[in-house]
Every structure is written in structure tokens, then in C-alpha cells.
Amino acid sequence: MLRTFSRWLFSFTWAYLGPVVNKQLQQLKKKLFDDLPQNASILEVGAGYGSNFAFVPRTTKRLVALEPNLFLIDGLKASAAKGGFENIEVITEELEVSLLPSNAFDVVVRAPIDVSVFSLAIVCADLHACALLGQ
Ligand SMILES: C[S@@+](CC[C@H](N)C(=O)[O-])C[C@H]1O[C@@H](n2cnc3c(N)ncnc32)[C@H](O)[C@@H]1O
After folding, report:
1. Whole-prediction pTM
2. 115 lines ligand 1 (CB under 6 A)
């Protein structure tokens, strides 16, 4: 119940704050995403409303978004469609409980997410395992 409320609250506030933060980080994001390889398989962990999809190279062959907050999913899919990624795969799980395949992604993009310090090492190891290039 509390979790549902906090997720709703996040979705409500992030709908306003997200675009402000995104505007501030626009140049930096562009620079970072411009460095991504073409035709890559990309996993974004904590994709939110999908504000990063505007920077993902159009040639990306597979885009997977991990986002546990169900209040964000419609917006995330709308951003994906707007960016030309209608085939996005959405996983509505937390990173620490998701069973991501090993060596499946060329690049993992990770937002600051809520994990306990205890699970942080596991999460980092998991992310490293599912990225081919370690990017
Ligand atoms: C600061 S927001 C960033 C959203 C988006 N990447 C952006 O730049 O606008 C962090 C996102 O991570 C998600 N998140 C939080 N904990 C997570 C976890 N344990 N596993 C996966 N995603 C998580 C939240 O639901 C939230 O959408």
C-alpha cells in the first residue's frame, strides 16, 4: 500500500520534474548517447517515462526497458513510440529480482535506482554479466 502510494507520488512529481532535469542534462545526455555503438542491444534500467529514448541511436536493434513503477509504463511506451522504438520490450520488475540473461546486451544504461547497500554489489555484478562490452 505504502509502496503503491510512493510509486504514484513519484510518477506525479516526475511528470513535472523529469522534463526540467532532462532539459538541464540534455547536452550531457546527447554526448553520452552519441558514443553508443550502432545496431546495439540496449538495456535501460529504471527507464522512467522514457526520457532517454530520444537520445538512443535510431539504429538500435533491440531496446529493453526495466521499470517496476507501473504508473510510468504508459508514458514510457508513448516515449518509445515517439522515438521510433515501437518494438521496445518492457520488463516491469526491479533489477534485483529480474532474471536478465547473461551476455545479452551491448550497453546497459542505468538511472539512479533504489537498491539497498546490501544488494548493490549483486546488482552491479548482474549488470556486468548481462552486458557484452561492459559499457
Ligand atoms: C530518477 S528516475 C530516472 C528515470 C529516467 N531514466 C529519466 O532519466 O527520466 C529512476 C527510475 O528508476 C526506477 N527504479 C527504482 N528502483 C529500481 C529498481 N530497483 N530496479 C529498477 N528500476 C528502479 C524508478 O521507478 C524510476 O523510474
Report:
1. 0.89
2. yes
